[in-house]
Design goal:
There is one protein chain. By secondary structure, the protein is α+β, with helices and mostly antiparallel strands. The chain has 2 domains: 189 residues, no CATH class; 102 residues, no CATH class. Helix content is 32%, strand content 23%. The chain contains 9 helices and 17 strands. Helix 5 crosses helix 6. It is elongated, with a radius of gyration of 24 Å. The protein starts with a helix and ends in a 7-residue tail after the last strand. It comes from Paraburkholderia xenovorans (strain LB400). This is DUF4868 domain-containing protein. InterPro entries: KwaB (IPR048119), KwaB-like (IPR032359).
């Protein structure tokens, strides 16, 4: 995983090295999505490229922006999430093909309508390397010919009889150097076949917890993954799961008032959704003690030092 600065340096190197741009329209959804190459004249290509690169550079100027692996995703709000789960959405291969494979066919107005566009991919490339940006295409980005659009022609207004596609800065996901970085997680979940992948990954985490023998899943809420998705996925990479079961239970017993988990016969008694959430807070090591004041805190996000 690259840091924010490493990503910034990589993109700036691509942008500075005699770049060219290709824009692709995504038709359909999921595994059935196909991409068509948009045919621009040279002037339009350069203007879109200049505007889009400026938007990307502005995005990476944000001081609080960080990168974090998906498997360790916490509550921080200003983060680029690197996809690091073993199983990948099938749509990733489509974007990799745009980056590395032969160009798809041109978008044909005889065969397709702009109303069919669901996503946009933008490839910006230098001689050495390239980056692909992905974003969802919304109807607001399409001005249809059945709307009245006036434009200036000499000294008069006249009607523009055609469809207009607006290409605005911003991205939901980027692909560079074989790594996928998610900018908007909710849009990512909708645009990519991630739900089933997440369910399988979460069930694997639950199985690891059950095998430790530290829980009594009384109502089945743990097995039903009744907790925030990011908390379950993060627990799979937590150092807490590598501790001895007795150590985890002893800590929870000592901090019983703070942690709030009921312990019966050496196991966490999970009888509610809230108890499952508290278990994941414990397994994610979200209880901190200050070495200076000895005060105890709950944390939404943390970086190792």
């Amino acid at each position: 995983m690259k840091t924010k600065q490493e990503l910034t340096d990589t993109l700036n190197a691509i942008f500075a090295d005699g770049v060219n741009m290709k824009l692709y329209f995504g038709l359909g959804a999921g595994a059935a999505r196909s991409y068509k190459l948009a045919d621009f004249d040279d002037g339009a290509t350069q203007r879109v490229l200049t505007n889009y690169v400026a938007g990307v550079r502005e995005f990476f100027e944000r001081d609080e922006l960080q990168t974090v692996p998906l498997s360790q995703l916490d509550q921080r709000s200003d983060a680029l999430v690197m996809y690091d789960l073993q199983e990948q959405p099938v749509e990733f291969a489509q974007l990799e093909a745009l980056q590395n494979g032969p160009e798809p066919d041109f978008f044909s107005f005889d065969e397709n309508s702009v109303s069919e566009i669901r996503t946009i991919a933008i490839k910006i490339a230098s001689v050495q390397r390239s980056v692909v940006f992905f974003k969802t295409f919304y109807p607001v980005s399409l001005v249809k010919r059945d709307q009245i659009l006036l434009y200036k022609l000499e000294n008069r207004f006249t009607i523009f009889d055609g469809d207009i596609v607006k290409v605005t800065p911003g991205f939901d996901l980027l692909l560079v150097d074989g790594e996928f970085y998610i900018n908007d997680f909710r849009k990512f979940e909708k645009a990519f076949s991630f739900t089933e992948i997440a369910e399988r990954a979460m069930l694997a985490v639950v199985q690891s917890i059950l095998e430790m023998g530290i829980v009594n899943d009384v109502k089945g809420y743990l097995a039903a993954c009744a907790a925030p998705k990011r908390d379950i996925l993060r627990a799979g990479q937590s150092d807490v799961l590598r501790l001895q079961a007795a150590t985890i239970v002893a800590f929870a017993t000592q901090k019983g008032d703070k942690i709030g988990l009921k312990i019966v016969d050496g196991q966490f008694h999970l009888s509610s959704r809230d108890s499952v959430k508290k278990l994941y807070k414990l397994l994610n090591d979200d209880y901190l003690t200050s070495g200076l004041t000895a005060f105890e805190y709950e944390t939404l996000a943390k970086n190792k030092m």
